[in-house]
Amino acid sequence: MKKSFNFENFISNHFKISIAFFALGLIFGIIYSINLLGFSIDSETLNPVNMRSIHISLMLYGFVPLMLSYLPFLLINKEVGVCDEGIRYLNLYTIIWYIFLVFMVISLLLGKNRGLAFYDFAYELNFLLAIAGVFYIIALYKFIKLYKVLPFWIKVCLRVVIIAPITLLILMNPIIGQVESTVTGPHGDNTLGMSLALIPIYYLIIKLLNENEFKARWNILWIIPTLFYFGTVLYRIFFEPLTYNQEWFAQYLTLLYVPLLYRWYKDSNIKIHAKKALLISILAFLFVDIEGNILFIPEIRWLFHRNDLIVAHAHVAMGIAVFFMVISMFINHIKELHKGIFLKFYLVGILGIFTVLSISGFTQAGFSTIPTDKLWILRTLFGFVAFGFIFAFIKIRTNYSKLELYNLAGIGADGLGGIFLILLASFTYPLFGFSFNGVYEYVVFTFVSLTGIIHFLALKNPNFTILTVIIRVFASAMFFALYSSNRLGIEALIICLFDLSFVFIYLIFFYNKEKLCKDLC
């Protein structure tokens, strides 16, 4: 069996990169929660509609699904080892997914959304996910070559991932897909499908974490819902829409997962930390399953349809059930996850959000008189508590060299400054009397942010610092030319002088020292 430290490093690095997108999703969620309290500004990008859309999209398509997609590779690593060539293709898959997330966030920031609850980003971006899926398939093929005899779960997994890119493009298509046609009905068979998708993941996670060979029992409890799910989808595609009672019946088949997951969990033999995380996930999943079935009763459904109780339900489903699936998968690989206090912060935060939104839902349905705005204040505070989880991954240094301080200043000025301008320029420019067209400026702000990223890279490799200086020289020269030719106003001169100040600081305090040191060496 071939083991590789590169695989552990790969897992650790991408877990920490992807958790940054999760943190970003939490931030946008907190901003949206603050917006609901009446605190919003006239910003082209930082408006409640965009904030909600980005928050939901990052939660659904960011950290959680990306890390869940690593599950087959973690299991293969456990059973037969790793393939270094396969890691290369898995890395390409991951990077393209990051590119998709960047495109998704920026396009949603500028208001390009489809107005759908769970598939809000532009349809064209699904082609990036499909391309990523091709590299995922190649990576999986490279890994499974390590087996002499393919296990049954590998054969199933292969078939699923091969059809996934094409299926994605069809299902997400606004004309022929299922997305547009299922956003107004009761979604009983949709709920069954989403729940069904998690059952094999639970099986593979238990198989991954189990200390010995795991034998699944009571399989008839997932076979029956599977047959009915595909039957309802085919019926809707080829015949006619399902009636409410038909969808209701499909919805109630998810109750078969309650005894199934109980049996699997009791039969498992898993280390304590991972087993606790898995238990939290399963309990949250079963709670959502049972609550969802209750909410499907017609007399109850229309009281709570699209109010805060449903939002609370979604927070438990994604924020606890699926999130802790990922935590259980990686808790034996990521040392930061052993800091239980941060996971407790997160869990308290999400449960707090669930509680206040549930009460708010009963208020909106007429069963309570507690003011919704007061509950939303608590929702925002609990959001900050949940965000505390991220600090498990933040290491604060106190000692920096002068060159590192210079690069930190560049990160703050350009990196954070560029993000500030993207979010708030449409609001702040008019305050200072600057014109704002909202077109080319965003391109400039993006390049400003990239300079900050290069400063960040210079913390690891100081050679990148000179690149930031070169960029600033040309940028300041261009802004001076635009100012002197009266094509831009005083703001162009301010930017020119700002960049030149960084150039001169580097030349005076760092350039000669580096050159002399190089010559002496």
TrEMBL record:
Q: Which InterPro entries match?
A: Cyt_c_oxase-like_su1_sf
Q: Which residues cross the membrane?
A: 21-41, 53-77, 89-110, 122-144, 156-176, 188-206, 218-237, 249-265, 277-297, 309-331, 343-363, 375-394, 406-427, 439-457, 464-483, 489-511
State the superkingdom.
Bacteria
Tagged with keyword Ribonucleoprotein: no
Q: Does the keyword tRNA-binding apply?
A: no
Keywords of the record, alphabetical order, are: Membrane, Transmembrane, Transmembrane helix
Q: What is the official name of this protein in its record?
A: Membrane protein
- Which organism was this protein described from? Arcobacter aquimarinus
